[in-house]
Design a protein that fits this description.
Layout lengths: L7 E6 L10 E9 L2 E6 L9 E2 L1 H5 L8 H20 L5 H8 L9 H14 L3 H18 L11 H12 L2 E6 L5 E6 L3 H18 L30 H9 L7 H14 L5 H6 L5 E2 L2 E5 L1 H6 L5 E5 L2 H10 L20 H26 L6 H14 L4 H8 L4 H5 L7 H11 L6
Helix pairs in contact: 4-5, 5-7, 9-12, 9-13, 9-14, 14-15
Length: 430
């Protein structure tokens, strides 16, 4: 059901205006909160589109006008997609995204820059940051502001990967003028993230006359590196130690510990999903949500149900916003009317605070470091070790495939391995 807060699109014939041939311009109309804006369109010949009233009226029924009908339908679909992806609608942002064109569609850096800006305008800040970091890194490697697709070949990406994996000394000046330095080391995971963005640009632009560089290395192509899947799950016993840790009441340490436990207990949800939870997500004895990552990347949204245990309830009661109306965020991380940029900043800040405090807690407990990333892996792995099926774990995590779930499951403890190894040929007492 459309409301005044939902932008509405339409293809119209502006009969108030006409050219020398008494034809009228065809325009895209966008209506939002009673305001209307009209955007001039181009036809199949790339020229401003004019039509007679008769032709416009029969565009849906005339065989001769079918290609133009398809063309106009695609134009409106594009506008609707832009609107759907915008976190907050404004005509200015819509125009910036809808009509943006790369300065040079043969220039890889220009395409990366334009895509990053589109993601930022659409409120997809995390994705925008990924593109921006990839562009900054490639510019640093090449020392250039422009770089053609044609030059981004297999050798170029191999050289870039080698450069990225080479330790670099970073120097900077303090406020007192003292020079400090540190060694920066990029991992294969970072290389993979950056170059998957580049591959996406190749797939979208399909630059003419340029050999596609990505594929299997044994076929002479460049294989984007995959980060080593380091298993980062805690045992159930270590999680119990964290839960029993004596943190001073009302401190950031206590809040960080409880936020970590909430993430672990709530199907390993990430902090972004946790921060976005509202009391409206509580449906009786369970929390129902759609993962932000899933909502942005797949056509069919996946709903996750989390049963509210006593431990989860206690954390909400202790740290939750009051009075707990349906439109309130459960936790005091975000606030109403927040911009996408501020949301991204506050979530990143919360993740850092949790990780810093959890690092100190784990040192005190003499257990492996537990980060927000660990909480999700620990949830999945503890369930696996307790006998839960991969299908159940996959559904709980909101995954589309069991293979994705397998990547989250850590190895069994050494004690378990020893038990089964000794079963192969039990030792006899001499």
């Amino acid at each position: 059901m459309k409301t005044d807060n939902t932008p509405v699109t339409g293809i119209i014939l502006e009969t108030r205006k006409s050219n020398a041939d008494e034809l009228h311009p065809v325009k895209l109309r966008v209506t939002f909160k009673g305001d209307r804006k009209y955007y001039t369109l181009k036809g199949l010949d790339k020229k401003t589109l004019y039509m007679s009233s008769d032709d416009f009226d029969r565009i849906s029924t005339s065989t001769n006008l079918k290609p133009l009908k398809i063309h106009l339908t695609e134009i409106e679909k594009k506008a609707m997609k832009v609107i759907e992806e915008m976190a907050v609608f404004s005509f200015e942002s819509f125009e910036s995204i809808y009509f943006s064109k790369p300065k040079d569609d043969k220039d890889l850096f220009s395409i990366l820059d334009t895509t990053g800006k589109k993601m930022r305008e659409a409120g997809r800040i995390s994705t925008a940051v990924s593109f921006e970091c990839a562009l900054k890194s490639l510019k640093e490697f090449t020392g250039k502001e422009k770089f053609p697709f044609a030059a981004a070949n297999v050798k170029f990406f191999k050289d870039y990967e080698k450069w990225m994996l080479t330790p670099k000394v970073i120097e900077w000046k303090t406020k007192t003028g003292k020079t400090k330095s540190r060694t920066k080391v990029n991992g294969r995971t970072t290389v993979g993230i950056y170059l998957r963005n580049v591959r996406t640009m190749f797939n979208q632009v399909k630059p003419v006359g340029v050999l596609y560089p990505f594929g299997k290395s044994n076929q002479g192509l460049y294989a984007i590196p995959k980060g080593k899947n380091v298993k980062k799950a805690l045992t159930q016993a270590d999680v119990a130690k964290i839960a029993s840790y004596s943190a001073a009441k009302g401190t950031f340490e206590q809040k960080s510990r409880d936020y970590w436990l909430f993430s672990y207990l709530c199907n390993g949800i990430n902090i972004k999903d946790m921060a976005r939870l509202k009391y409206a997500n509580i449906k009786g004895e369970k929390i129902t949500l759609i993962r932000a990552k899933t909502a942005e990347s797949v056509d069919e949204e996946t709903t996750i149900d989390i049963m509210i245990t006593k431990q989860i309830g206690r954390i909400i009661d202790l740290h939750g916003n009051k009075p707990g109306t349906s439109d309130q965020y459960i936790f005091p991380i975000l606030y109403q009317g927040i911009t996408p940029e501020d949301e991204y900043r506050l979530i990143q800040q919360t993740v850092r605070n949790i990780n810093d405090n959890m690092t100190n807690i784990c040192k005190e407990l003499k257990i492996d470091r537990a980060t927000t990333y660990t909480a999700r892996h620990s949830f999945a792995t503890v369930l696996k070790r307790s006998g839960a099926s991969v299908e159940f774990i996959s559904e709980s995590l909101g995954h589309k495939s069991k293979q994705t779930t397998q990547n989250y499951l850590a190895n069994f403890e050494d004690e378990e391995k020893k038990k089964w190894a000794n079963m192969l040929l039990p030792e006899k007492d001499v």
